[in-house]
From TrEMBL:
CDD domains hit by this protein: HMA
Annotated keywords: Metal-binding
Protein name per the record: Copper chaperone
Keyword Lipid metabolism: no
GO molecular function terms listed in the Swiss-Prot or TrEMBL record: metal ion binding
Residue span(s) of domain HMA: 2-66
Pfam families assigned to the protein according to its UniProt record, in alphabetical order: HMA
Keyword Ribosomal protein annotated: no
Protein origin, superkingdom: Bacteria
Protein's organism: Corynebacterium epidermidicanis
């Protein structure tokens, strides 16, 4: 199992983080998601998910992944 780190823009509260986590948890291959709205950091754990799928899920929640 691997972990990938992402930065999500626009979250201002715990509800925002929960909305992002719920969408990302639905991505095939994810097994865990940790989101910190204060820092914008998101850690996704799993195997076989793609960056594009994660980005799309975050956008479905109304936020954006910042490119490193």
């Amino acid at each position: 199992m691997s972990q990938k780190y992402y930065h999500v823009n626009g979250m201002t509260c715990e509800h925002c983080a929960k909305a992002v986590a719920e969408e990302v948890n639905d991505v095939l291959g994810t097994q865990g998601v940790e989101v910190d709205f204060a820092t914008g950091q998101m850690i996704v754990t799993g195997e076989g998910f793609t960056d594009a799928a994660i980005k799309n899920a975050v956008e479905e929640a109304g936020y954006h992944v910042v490119e490193n």
